[in-house]
Specification:
The complex is a heterodimer of chains A (373) and B (336).
Chain A (H helix, E strand, L loop, with lengths): L2 H6 L30 E12 L2 E13 L4 E5 L6 H9 L8 E8 L2 E2 L5 H7 L4 E4 L3 H4 L6 H12 L4 H14 L5 H4 L9 H12 L6 E5 L7 H18 L2 E6 L2 H7 L2 E6 L2 E7 H6 L4 H8 L44 H4 L5 E4 L2 E3 L5 H12 L4
Parallel strand pairs in A: 3-8, 3-9, 6-7, 7-8
Antiparallel strand pairs in A: 1-2, 1-4, 4-5, 9-10, 10-12, 11-12
Chain B lengths: L1 H32 L4 H6 L8 H11 L5 H14 L1 E5 L2 E5 L6 E2 L4 E2 H36 L4 H15 L2 H15 L16 H34 L3 H8 L4 H29 L3 H6 L5 H10 L3 H29 L6
Antiparallel strand pairs in B: 1-2, 3-4
Helix pairs in contact in B: 1-13, 5-6, 5-8, 5-10, 6-8, 7-8, 8-10, 9-10, 10-13, 12-13
The chains are: A alpha/beta (373), B mainly alpha (336).
Chain lengths: 373, 336
């Protein structure tokens, strides 16, 4: 590798491969151990080499997810949420994205797996629904054709059988007169109906993992609630694992069991919904909660926005990536600019990546944040 | 759908009428506005040094003495019912469809155009097949292998294709493949298909390739750009997320969306070409509509120019009509 390329790859120690190499004794013991969880990410990194430098869209993510459970991934635009989900689905273009780490899905590792194997799993074992159902559905094919296609990729059945299945799925997601609407084109559906059709398509092969990337962002508020209800009902019916990606804390409060708050491609805080909403530990989470409008409480003054903008993923701030926007960074005595905070357990499943001490966080939360929410 | 087609058909007829009016006005109204008298107009058809009596006789024969709208009415009627230019013993008959009567050649315009049509048709349709296959094929491959040697080479050749004028590539190909290496000895002539299909094709290979080179280059660039856009669409990601194999993603989802606008352009290009591929026909001495038009212009034969303009207009309007209907079939979002 020439030096130029080495520069492009960045010199941060976070990217040095410290795993044993073949020939070293440890190598033979260090073969990745299969995960016992249904889905497990281990130190997942998705980096994009560009002319301007290395874009670290996901930088060391780890979490587990079991069947029947829902994980909400929350963060601002550009925090790496979608990049992570596309990495799980194997939908990054080969050559443009550099993916390292491990993704275990039901005992099978996907990062090192062949593209063909991941393609087989895609749509069957794991499925995805996207933000804007109008652009995510092909404008020139009927809804039915698109569902039938999805079903027949993974099930060797006749078109007639697949069509019957497509109508059943449309009925299941609550589309009226499914046997006639199956022949409609996407532009003939309303926004909510399109997202329902998209869900029907994603669920046509009974996937065990469903990734919903901002499924309600493009929809009316009234329709949003219906779609969230639908996802919850279907999850209970199929007992699938669900990852829901959103910047809307209301959505995750509604659906998720656990929440992962992402910032600049890293996990800022991870924990059960109850902990994140009632005992949030990370200043960034406080910011998210403070900038969320609430109807259940009368608020005297304005929302509390997080100052500044999300960092460029090429030049992630040193140390804690949130420190330039953090009101409490000075309390750490320089630690926040020098050292990347590790994700540490706070209490059981709840963990946070923050240099503040438990006392400092508790004090800030009780005095500054909670009274103003 | 039926009402849509009828509506479009009606609009097409209306469009043709407008085309005929404008062309008619250009040839018969504009000279008058420029101060030319009907005498001077008629004098063009009488031969050298005509006497005023002869000129007046011709003026009456051609009906140039009548008001313009009457002349236009006669012209339209002639297309449907034929026209007789009568002046005593000197009768010129122009049977329907009469697109004018060339008094320079002493024959109606329509049969001349009719014999030129198969030449232009052979040229245009043959070339169209070549350019669609190669243009679209290379465009798709280039888009999928963006930035590779293949892509760069193809786009360089395409740039050459767009930039090199047809009269240059035509003469070059004749010089090489007919004169230096006598691969296509018949090139530069036209042999009717009915006479000898093999020699028909042999004579047309060079014109086909020359004309197709220009259009294939255009289409390759269009297809490449369209395909690059399409492959970044959300629905392509959806297709991949379903677990489709890449070939099917490209062909069934990518190409389908890319080709729709290209079909439109193709229809219009073909319509325009059938109205006369002027440069190619002239360079290869093919007696098609394009060369007919050039000769008519050189001879200042107004009825011929008028006729060929009308015919070319007809093909363009028809191509538009077919494209409109086709578009409604292939793009379900079009409301009709």
């Amino acid at each position: 590798m020439d030096t130029k390329a080495e520069e492009d790859w960045g010199s941060g120690d976070s990217f040095v491969d410290v795993r044993p190499r073949p020939g070293e004794a440890e190598y033979y013991d260090s073969a990745p151990k299969p995960s016992s969880s249904f889905l497990e990410l281990r130190d997942l990194r998705v980096h994009f080499p560009t002319d301007d430098g290395l874009v670290r869209s996901a930088d060391g993510l780890s979490f587990t997810l079991e069947r029947g459970r829902t994980l909400g991934i929350v963060g601002e635009s550009g925090s790496g949420k979608s990049v992570t989900s596309l990495a799980i689905m194997g939908l990054h273009k080969q050559g443009t994205a550099k993916i390292t780490g491990e993704i275990w899905l039901d005992g099978e590792e996907l990062v090192a797996a062949s593209a063909e194997r991941v393609r087989e799993l895609r749509g069957k074992k794991m499925a995805m629904i996207f933000q804007d159902p109008l652009s995510a559905l092909h404008p020139y094919y009927t809804i039915g054709t698109q569902i039938i296609e999805a079903y027949r990729i993974h099930n060797k059945v006749s078109k007639a059988v697949a069509r019957k299945h497509a109508i059943e799925m449309l009925d299941r997601v609550g589309i009226p007169q499914p046997s006639s609407r199956v022949d409609d084109y996407p532009h003939q559906f309303s926004g909510g109906m399109r997202q329902r059709a998209m869900i029907a398509m994603a669920l046509s092969c009974d996937p065990e993992l469903l990734i919903a990337d901002e499924p309600t962002t493009a929809l009316d508020v009234t329709v949003q609630a219906q779609i969230l209800d639908l996802i919850r009902d279907l999850q209970q019916e199929f007992n699938s694992a669900v990852i829901i990606i959103t910047h809307d804390l209301g959505v995750v409060a509604e659906l998720a069991d656990n929440i992962m708050v992402m910032y600049a491609g890293r996990t800022a805080e991870y924990g059960p919904v109850d902990d994140i909403f009632n005992r949030p530990q990370h200043p960034y989470t406080w910011g998210l909660l403070g900038s969320m409008p609430r109807l259940d409480k009368e608020r005297a003054d304005r929302l509390l926005p997080i100052m500044g903008t999300p960092p460029s993923l090429i030049n992630v701030p040193s140390g804690c990536p949130f420190h330039p926007r953090c009101n409490y960074a000075k309390l750490t005595g320089g630690l926040s600019t020098d050292e990347v905070p590790k994700l540490r357990s706070v209490d059981g499943d709840h963990s946070v990546a923050c240099h503040l001490t438990a006392e400092q966080r508790l004090h800030a939360w009780e005095t500054d944040i909670k009274p103003n929410l | 759908m039926i009402t849509f087609i009828i509506r479009r058909l009606f609009a097409a007829v209306l469009m043709l009428l407008v085309v005929s009016m404008v062309t008619f006005a250009v040839f018969f109204l504009v000279p008058r506005l420029a101060g030319q008298t009907t005498d001077q107009l008629a004098a063009q058809y009488v031969g050298k040094n005509p006497s005023p009596t002869q000129i007046h006789a011709m003026e009456v024969k051609l009906g140039l003495d009548a008001p313009l709208y009457v002349q236009y009415g006669r012209f339209l009627k002639g297309i449907v019912a034929g026209q007789t230019f009568n002046d005593g013993p000197d009768v010129s008959v122009c049977p329907a469809p009469c697109f004018g009567y060339s008094f320079k050649n002493q024959e109606p315009v329509w049969p001349q155009m009719l014999s030129a049509l198969p030449v232009t048709g052979s040229l245009a349709i043959g070339a169209a097949i070549i350019w669609v296959v190669f243009g679209v094929g290379i465009g798709v491959l280039s888009a999928l292998r963006r930035g590779t040697v293949f892509d760069r080479a193809a786009m360089t050749v395409a740039l050459a294709g767009v930039s090199l004028p047809v009269f240059f590539t035509a003469l070059l190909s004749l010089a090489i493949f007919r004169d230096t290496i006598p691969l296509f000895p018949d090139a530069g002539t036209f042999i009717p298909f009915s006479q000898d299909p093999l020699r028909w094709a042999g004579a047309l290979v060079l014109p086909w390739v020359t004309l197709a080179f220009l259009y294939a280059a255009l289409y390759a660039r269009l297809t490449r750009a369209g395909m690059l856009d399409t492959m970044n669409e959300d629905f392509i990601r959806t297709a991949r997320a379903k677990g489709l194999v890449e070939r099917r993603v490209v062909v069934k989802h990518g190409l389908r969306a890319t080709l729709t606008p290209i079909v439109t352009i193709f229809g219009l290009d073909l319509g325009l070409l059938i109205g006369g591929a002027v440069l190619t026909e002239t360079a290869f001495s093919l007696p098609g509509l394009g060369r007919f038009a050039v000769n008519a212009i050189n001879n200042k034969d107004l009825p011929e120019i008028l006729g060929v303009t009308m015919l070319a207009g007809f093909f363009v309007v028809m191509a538009n009509l077919i494209v409109d209907i086709l578009y409604a079939v292939i793009d379900p979002r079009v409301r009709y």
